[in-house]
Specification:
By secondary structure, the protein is mainly alpha-helical. The protein is built from 3 helices and no strands.
């Protein structure tokens, strides 16, 4: 549709999916400025509505920018595309000690079991673990 700035006054904006009140030449203030500045409507430059869900497949996080959540927006910004092959699995797994369901803290153990295993290796077995866990 050709948007001429000579269009007669209408009540609702002539731009698609816009229900704002028309002010100038049948367009709302936002779309009028687009036509004035670029000579046409520029929907590709408009901000998206906030609060929706990320457009990346399988992601349920809220949108932050350009239709993506923070993590996927950073991929697009830095690399130029979504990179599912490079994504890490976020979220912690559970402690690997039998019967424990606490989130893991280090080396697949929760804090309590990591410290008990660490203590067990030093005191009971007498193993040298100076190279393990960043020890000096």
């Amino acid at each position: 549709m050709d948007y001429s700035l000579q269009t007669p006054h209408v009540r609702e904006c002539l731009a698609e999916e816009c229900d704002r009140e028309a002010r100038n030449c049948g367009l709302c203030a936002k779309h009028y400025q687009q036509v004035r500045k670029h000579g046409r409507l520029t929907p590709e430059r408009e901000y998206r509505k906030r609060g929706a869900i990320c457009e990346a497949k399988g992601c349920a996080d809220k949108q932050v920018a350009k239709g993506y959540c923070f993590r996927h927006y950073q991929q697009v910004r830095r690399i130029g595309r979504l990179t599912p092959e490079r994504e890490r699995k976020y979220g912690r797994t559970r402690c690997s000690y039998p019967g424990c369901f606490e989130p893991h803290s280090a080396r697949d153990y929760c804090k309590r079991h990591y410290m008990s295993e660490y203590y067990h290796k030093i005191v009971v077995t007498g193993k040298d673990i100076s190279n393990a866990a960043g020890g000096g």
